[in-house]
Design a protein that fits this description.
Blueprint (H helix, E strand, L loop, with lengths): L1 H15 L6 E7 L8 H10 L4 E7 L4 E7 L5 H10 L5 E2 L4
Antiparallel strand pairs: 1-3, 1-4, 2-3
């Protein structure tokens, strides 16, 4: 029976251990940017998403490069944020 108790303890410890988050970076394409002030609105919307630490938005490229904690945010949350600000976006194809 001691091995059964040890197995239970290992399972409990594994369940109690925090999940390790990873910092991710994603590029979003934002095709509807039509003026030089649009990036400010998009950047502010992205920075309001919990877990986002950085957002660099380029009007010229019509992209947003977002750095975020993947335990707190997702690409779906990021695209919802830009859409909510009036700028639909989608994840750019990884190169």
């Amino acid at each position: 029976m001691p091995s059964l108790h040890r197995s239970c303890a290992v399972l409990l410890l594994a369940a109690a251990a925090p999940a390790f988050a990873a910092t991710r970076q994603v590029t979003l394409t934002v095709p509807t940017m039509d003026c030089a002030t649009c990036p400010v609105t998009i950047r502010v919307a992205l920075l309001k998403v919990p877990g986002v630490s950085k957002a660099v938005v380029s009007y010229k490229r019509r992209t947003a490069v977002v750095t975020f904690d993947d335990a707190k945010a997702s690409v779906a949350a990021l695209t919802r944020a830009t859409d909510g600000a009036g700028y639909p976006s989608f994840q750019a194809d990884p190169k």
